[in-house]
Amino acid sequence: MKTARLVGTGQQYPIGKILCIGRNYVDHIKELGNEMPERPVIFSKPASSVIGEGEEIVIPAYSGDCHHEAELAILIGTGGKEIPAEQAMAHVAGFGVAIDLTLRDVQSELKKKGLPWDIAKGFDTACPLSDFVPAEKVADPQDVRITLSVNGEPRQDGSTSLMIHRVPELISYLSSIFTLSPGDLILTGTPAGVGPIKSGDQVVAEIAGVGKLSVSVK
Ligand code: MG
Fold first, then answer.
1. pTM beyond cutoff 0.70
2. Can you list the domains of the chain with their CATH numbers?
Protein backbone atom coordinates (compact mmCIF):
# COMPACT_ATOMS: atom_id res chain seq x y z
CA MET A 1 0.00 0.00 0.00
CA LYS A 2 1.26 3.48 -0.85
CA THR A 3 1.37 5.94 2.02
CA ALA A 4 1.82 9.68 2.46
CA ARG A 5 4.13 10.61 5.34
CA LEU A 6 3.61 13.76 7.38
CA VAL A 7 7.12 14.88 8.33
CA GLY A 8 7.93 15.20 12.03
CA THR A 9 4.61 13.78 13.25
CA GLY A 10 5.07 10.04 12.81
CA GLN A 11 1.73 10.08 10.99
CA GLN A 12 1.23 8.13 7.79
CA TYR A 13 -1.86 8.15 5.63
CA PRO A 14 -2.70 5.35 3.20
CA ILE A 15 -3.13 7.17 -0.10
CA GLY A 16 -6.71 7.23 -1.35
CA LYS A 17 -7.91 9.18 -4.36
CA ILE A 18 -5.43 11.35 -6.21
CA LEU A 19 -7.52 14.14 -7.71
CA CYS A 20 -5.68 16.32 -10.20
CA ILE A 21 -6.44 19.75 -11.58
CA GLY A 22 -5.61 20.51 -15.19
CA ARG A 23 -5.13 23.97 -16.74
CA ASN A 24 -4.84 25.89 -13.47
CA TYR A 25 -2.11 28.34 -14.53
CA VAL A 26 -2.67 30.76 -17.44
CA ASP A 27 0.90 30.53 -18.76
CA HIS A 28 0.67 26.71 -18.97
CA ILE A 29 -2.72 26.85 -20.74
CA LYS A 30 -1.13 29.14 -23.33
CA GLU A 31 1.95 26.98 -23.88
CA LEU A 32 -0.26 23.98 -24.77
CA GLY A 33 -2.71 26.09 -26.79
CA ASN A 34 -5.65 25.01 -24.62
CA GLU A 35 -8.85 26.94 -23.95
CA MET A 36 -9.32 28.61 -20.57
CA PRO A 37 -11.77 26.44 -18.61
CA GLU A 38 -14.69 27.98 -16.69
CA ARG A 39 -14.56 25.31 -14.01
CA PRO A 40 -11.47 23.38 -12.87
CA VAL A 41 -10.52 20.52 -15.23
CA ILE A 42 -10.44 17.34 -13.12
CA PHE A 43 -8.86 13.97 -13.69
CA SER A 44 -7.40 11.38 -11.33
CA LYS A 45 -4.47 9.04 -10.92
CA PRO A 46 -4.59 5.70 -9.07
CA ALA A 47 -2.58 5.34 -5.84
CA SER A 48 -0.57 2.63 -7.64
CA SER A 49 1.06 5.36 -9.74
CA VAL A 50 2.92 6.88 -6.74
CA ILE A 51 6.69 6.60 -6.32
CA GLY A 52 8.83 8.29 -3.69
CA GLU A 53 12.12 10.13 -3.27
CA GLY A 54 14.99 8.50 -5.16
CA GLU A 55 12.79 6.06 -7.07
CA GLU A 56 12.76 5.51 -10.83
CA ILE A 57 10.28 6.67 -13.43
CA VAL A 58 9.53 3.99 -16.02
CA ILE A 59 8.17 5.50 -19.22
CA PRO A 60 5.70 3.06 -20.83
CA ALA A 61 6.72 1.61 -24.20
CA TYR A 62 3.55 3.01 -25.84
CA SER A 63 4.81 6.60 -25.49
CA GLY A 64 7.69 8.55 -26.97
CA ASP A 65 6.99 11.83 -25.18
CA CYS A 66 6.74 11.82 -21.37
CA HIS A 67 6.44 15.33 -19.86
CA HIS A 68 7.18 16.58 -16.34
CA GLU A 69 4.64 18.81 -14.55
CA ALA A 70 5.74 20.04 -11.11
CA GLU A 71 2.79 20.66 -8.79
CA LEU A 72 1.86 21.60 -5.23
CA ALA A 73 0.18 18.56 -3.63
CA ILE A 74 -2.39 18.77 -0.84
CA LEU A 75 -2.84 15.94 1.69
CA ILE A 76 -6.36 15.77 3.10
CA GLY A 77 -6.32 15.04 6.85
CA THR A 78 -10.00 15.45 7.69
CA GLY A 79 -12.60 14.22 5.26
CA GLY A 80 -15.85 15.83 4.26
CA LYS A 81 -18.47 16.51 1.63
CA GLU A 82 -19.62 19.90 0.35
CA ILE A 83 -16.93 21.67 2.34
CA PRO A 84 -17.37 25.47 2.24
CA ALA A 85 -14.29 27.28 0.90
CA GLU A 86 -14.05 29.24 4.18
CA GLN A 87 -13.57 25.97 6.10
CA ALA A 88 -11.46 24.16 3.49
CA MET A 89 -8.02 24.77 4.99
CA ALA A 90 -9.05 23.00 8.22
CA HIS A 91 -9.27 19.77 6.17
CA VAL A 92 -5.64 19.96 5.01
CA ALA A 93 -3.04 17.87 6.86
CA GLY A 94 -0.06 18.97 4.81
CA PHE A 95 1.55 20.10 1.60
CA GLY A 96 4.03 18.27 -0.61
CA VAL A 97 5.71 18.22 -4.00
CA ALA A 98 4.34 16.09 -6.82
CA ILE A 99 5.24 15.56 -10.45
CA ASP A 100 2.22 14.90 -12.66
CA LEU A 101 3.93 12.84 -15.35
CA THR A 102 2.03 13.00 -18.61
CA LEU A 103 2.49 11.02 -21.81
CA ARG A 104 1.86 14.04 -24.01
CA ASP A 105 1.69 12.16 -27.31
CA VAL A 106 -0.81 9.66 -25.90
CA GLN A 107 -2.83 12.40 -24.20
CA SER A 108 -3.01 14.43 -27.44
CA GLU A 109 -4.41 11.43 -29.33
CA LEU A 110 -6.95 10.75 -26.56
CA LYS A 111 -8.00 14.41 -26.46
CA LYS A 112 -8.60 14.41 -30.22
CA LYS A 113 -10.85 11.39 -29.89
CA GLY A 114 -12.60 12.69 -26.76
CA LEU A 115 -11.37 9.69 -24.78
CA PRO A 116 -10.32 9.54 -21.09
CA TRP A 117 -6.70 10.32 -20.19
CA ASP A 118 -6.04 7.46 -17.76
CA ILE A 119 -3.32 5.69 -19.73
CA ALA A 120 -1.51 9.00 -20.30
CA LYS A 121 -1.66 10.06 -16.64
CA GLY A 122 -2.14 7.02 -14.41
CA PHE A 123 0.48 4.47 -15.42
CA ASP A 124 2.85 2.97 -12.81
CA THR A 125 5.41 5.61 -11.62
CA ALA A 126 3.31 8.49 -13.09
CA CYS A 127 3.10 10.26 -9.73
CA PRO A 128 6.44 10.96 -8.03
CA LEU A 129 5.59 12.37 -4.59
CA SER A 130 7.56 13.86 -1.69
CA ASP A 131 6.83 13.59 2.00
CA PHE A 132 4.35 16.17 3.32
CA VAL A 133 5.03 19.15 5.56
CA PRO A 134 2.33 19.81 8.18
CA ALA A 135 -0.02 22.53 6.93
CA GLU A 136 0.70 24.85 9.86
CA LYS A 137 4.38 25.01 8.83
CA VAL A 138 3.53 26.54 5.44
CA ALA A 139 2.79 30.21 6.05
CA ASP A 140 1.06 30.86 2.72
CA PRO A 141 0.65 27.89 0.36
CA GLN A 142 -0.74 30.32 -2.17
CA ASP A 143 2.57 32.18 -2.41
CA VAL A 144 5.34 29.62 -2.83
CA ARG A 145 7.82 29.17 -5.65
CA ILE A 146 7.71 25.93 -7.68
CA THR A 147 10.77 24.91 -9.69
CA LEU A 148 11.78 21.84 -11.65
CA SER A 149 15.10 21.02 -13.23
CA VAL A 150 16.25 18.19 -15.48
CA ASN A 151 19.94 17.23 -15.16
CA GLY A 152 20.51 20.54 -13.37
CA GLU A 153 18.97 22.59 -16.19
CA PRO A 154 16.04 24.81 -15.06
CA ARG A 155 12.78 23.96 -16.82
CA GLN A 156 9.90 25.22 -14.66
CA ASP A 157 9.88 28.24 -12.38
CA GLY A 158 6.50 29.49 -11.23
CA SER A 159 4.56 30.58 -8.19
CA THR A 160 1.38 29.18 -6.65
CA SER A 161 0.22 32.81 -6.55
CA LEU A 162 -0.55 32.36 -10.27
CA MET A 163 -3.18 29.63 -9.78
CA ILE A 164 -6.53 30.38 -11.42
CA HIS A 165 -8.56 28.26 -8.98
CA ARG A 166 -7.03 28.56 -5.53
CA VAL A 167 -6.63 25.90 -2.86
CA PRO A 168 -9.78 26.54 -0.75
CA GLU A 169 -11.93 26.79 -3.88
CA LEU A 170 -10.46 23.55 -5.26
CA ILE A 171 -11.16 21.65 -2.03
CA SER A 172 -14.69 23.04 -1.90
CA TYR A 173 -15.42 22.23 -5.55
CA LEU A 174 -13.90 18.74 -5.44
CA SER A 175 -15.79 17.91 -2.23
CA SER A 176 -19.06 18.80 -3.95
CA ILE A 177 -18.41 15.92 -6.37
CA PHE A 178 -16.28 13.44 -4.42
CA THR A 179 -16.49 12.78 -0.68
CA LEU A 180 -12.98 13.60 0.54
CA SER A 181 -11.31 11.21 3.00
CA PRO A 182 -8.09 11.33 5.04
CA GLY A 183 -5.24 10.30 2.73
CA ASP A 184 -6.78 11.73 -0.41
CA LEU A 185 -4.43 13.96 -2.41
CA ILE A 186 -5.08 16.94 -4.64
CA LEU A 187 -2.55 17.93 -7.32
CA THR A 188 -3.18 21.58 -8.03
CA GLY A 189 -1.88 22.02 -11.59
CA THR A 190 1.40 23.03 -13.12
CA PRO A 191 2.95 26.35 -14.13
CA ALA A 192 4.58 26.83 -17.56
CA GLY A 193 7.77 25.14 -18.69
CA VAL A 194 6.60 21.54 -19.08
CA GLY A 195 8.78 19.42 -21.31
CA PRO A 196 10.07 15.95 -22.13
CA ILE A 197 12.18 13.63 -20.00
CA LYS A 198 14.12 10.63 -21.26
CA SER A 199 16.04 7.62 -20.01
CA GLY A 200 18.92 8.56 -17.68
CA ASP A 201 17.52 12.00 -16.74
CA GLN A 202 17.65 13.26 -13.15
CA VAL A 203 14.54 15.26 -12.30
CA VAL A 204 14.39 17.54 -9.26
CA ALA A 205 11.21 19.38 -8.27
CA GLU A 206 11.21 21.83 -5.38
CA ILE A 207 8.65 23.99 -3.66
CA ALA A 208 10.15 26.59 -1.36
CA GLY A 209 9.32 25.87 2.27
CA VAL A 210 7.50 22.66 1.34
CA GLY A 211 10.06 20.20 0.07
CA LYS A 212 12.24 18.77 -2.61
CA LEU A 213 11.77 15.65 -4.69
CA SER A 214 14.49 13.92 -6.73
CA VAL A 215 13.76 11.04 -9.10
CA SER A 216 15.47 9.53 -12.10
CA VAL A 217 14.26 8.05 -15.36
CA LYS A 218 15.01 4.40 -16.00
MG1 MG B 1 -0.76 18.52 -14.25
1. yes
2. 3-217 (3.90.850.10)
Report the separation in Å between the CA atom of 202 and the middle of ligand 1, taken as the mean of its atom positions.
19
C-alpha 143 – ligand 1 centre gap (Å) = 18
Give me ligand 1 centre to Cα 17, in Å: 15
> What spacing in Å lies between the alpha carbon of 190 and ligand 1's midpoint?
5
Mean pLDDT per block of 10 residues along the chain (218 residues) reads 95 98 92 87 98 98 98 98 98 98 98 97 98 97 97 97 96 98 98 97 97 98
HEC profile of the chain: CCEEEECCCCEEEECCCEEEEECCEHHHHHHCCCCCCCCCEEEEECHHHEECCCCEECCCCCCCCEEECEEEEEEECCCECCCCHHHHHHHEEEEEEEECCEEHHHHHHHHHHCCCCHHHHCCCCCEEECCEEEHHHCCCCCCCEEEEEECCEEEEEEEHHHECCCHHHHHHHHHCCCCECCCCEEECCCCCCCEEECCCCEEEEEECCCEEEEEEEC
Calculate how far, in angstroms, residue 22's C-alpha sits from the geometric centre of ligand 1.
5
